[in-house]
Amino acid sequence: MAYLAYALARGVAEGKYAYPFIDVSANGWVGVMSNAVVIALGFVAAAEVLVLVDRMLAPR
What is the DSSP letter of 57? Predict the structure, then answer.
């Protein structure tokens, strides 16, 4: 969350965004926030899968 805020602030200040999915001028604020939520959910889902795999592989 902190990096997203930093990247957005820097992009607004410089007019150039580090990533195309956070480019407010191209995607709008709703699109950027939607992209951020989808990416965050992807990270959470990947973490859940890794925890599940770890639990399945752990010795009993």
Answer: H
